[in-house]
Amino acid sequence: MIKLKAKGGELVEVQEKIKGMKEMVESTKVTTDKELAAASDIVKQVKTVEKFVREQKDKYVIPAKQIIKQASDRYDPYIKECQNAEESLKGKVKEYMDAADKRRKADELKIANRVEKGTMKPETAVKKFEALPEEKKTVKTEKSGIKRSVRKVAVITHPELVPKEYWVIDEVRVRREALAGKEIPGVEIKEESIISSV
C-alpha cells in the first residue's frame, strides 16, 4: 500500500477544516427563518471545504490516473489478446469434449435400445457399457489442468409465453414518458422537495 505524505501539513489542514465544519454543523439549529438563512450560508461553507479537500486529493489522484491510463493504453491490448487466445482454446476444448460426451451418450442409448428390443442380453449390455471410453471431465498434465462441468441454463425460447410475473418494468422509460405527460396506468406523478445550494 502506498502511504501518502502530506506536503507542508496539507492533511493537517484538511483535518482541521473538517473538525471545524463538523462542530459548526452539529451546533446549527434550523427552527426559525433567521436560522434557515444561516444554514444556507453554512451549506455554502461546507461546499467550500469539500472543494478544498477535493483539490488536495486531486494532487495525488490526477497524476495517478494519468499513469494508470498510460499503463492501460500500453498493456490492455496485449491482455485482450491473451484473453482472446484463452477463450479460443477453451472453445476448442469444449467442442471436443462435448462431441465426445455426445458420442458416448449415443452409444449408451444404442445399447439400452437393443436391450429393450431384446436383441442384446443385459449381461452383454453391462460389458459393453464398461467397455465404452470413460467420460473425461478433467484433463491434467504435470503443468496444468482443464475441467469440464455441465450446468443447467434457462433459455427463453418464446418470450410471449413467459408469465407476466417474470417481466421487469423499464423504470427509466416509465419515468421519462410519465414526466413527458404520457398517462401510464399504475403510475402517478408526485412532487418531492430537494434542497440544493444556489
* Number of β-strand runs: 2
Instruction: Please bin the fraction of helical residues.
Output: 55-70%
Mean pLDDT: 91
Give the C-alpha Rg.
Answer: 34 Å
Low-confidence stretches: none
What is the 3D form?
elongated
Determine the structural class based on helices, strands and strand pairing. Answer: mainly alpha
Distance between the termini: 40 Å
What order do the helices and strands follow?
HHHEEH
Please give the largest β-sheet.
Answer: 2 strands, antiparallel
Q: Helix tally?
A: 4
Beta-strand percent range? under 5%
**Number of domain modules:** 1
Strands ordered across the widest β-sheet? 1-2
Short description:
It contains four helices and two strands; from the N terminus they run αααββα. With 198 residues, the protein is mainly alpha-helical.
Care to describe what's here?
By secondary structure, the protein is mainly alpha-helical. It has one domain (7-179). The protein contains 4 helices and 2 strands, in the order αααββα. The chain has helices at 10-27, 33-117, 122-131, 171-179, and strands spanning 138-140, 145-147. A two-stranded antiparallel ribbon has the order 1-2.
Tell me the layout of helices and strands.
Blueprint: H1 10-27, H2 33-117, H3 122-131, E1 138-140, E2 145-147, H4 171-179
Antiparallel strand pairs: 1-2
Name the descriptors.
198 residues, two-stranded antiparallel sheet, 2 strands, elongated, mainly alpha
